[in-house]
Amino acid sequence: MMIRRLEAKDLDQTVALESACFSVPWKRKDFEDALKNDSTYLFYGAFEGEKLVGQAGLVMTPPDADITNVAVDPGYRRRGIAVKLLSELMDAGRELGIEDYTLEVRAGNEPAIALYEGLGFSEEGRRKNFYSNPVEDAVIMWKRR
Q: Please, which residues bridge with residue 2 across strands?
């Protein structure tokens, strides 16, 4: 398993993975713009050979960053990929001056919530009916220094 920064050459796989994992995925243009704006966005991918099997991003507003687009191919889940990916992503963020991390997760996504708690995140709020398709609350989590 190799974890590295995502590049423009990874766009097709990035968009496909996003679509496989989310009911309301980012569009190709969203990822194109994010990958060009490396002062604000940082995206990492986990690769099994040439295949992208996981991805996650940061939207950086130092000293904070939002973790976004955490996705692992359904056939590769429960193997620790998200933990490795997020750990490396947050390490890279720290080198860029990020001290605290936040994220939003569907209230019903108990495996993801457990993953984030294991990485040191805790719930600090909720956004009622934040998600659509299906409608669901967002749990707001933070990992603070």
A: 47
